[in-house]
Specification:
about 45 residues, mainly alpha
């Protein structure tokens, strides 16, 4: 899965999070996005 697809999936989860009971919290999703951003930056620096 590409970084863009991961980001879209995480963003979509964040948008529908209020309707989902067992979904990760928005804070957890935001942390996943930050981790993904770091992963992208690390891969670009290689």
């Amino acid at each position: 899965m590409t970084y863009t697809k991961k980001l879209i999936a995480l963003s979509s989860l964040m948008l529908i999070n209020t309707a989902a009971y067992a979904a990760p919290s928005n804070e957890e999703l935001f942390q996943m996005i930050l981790d993904l951003k770091k992963e992208v930056a690390d891969s670009k620096s290689r």
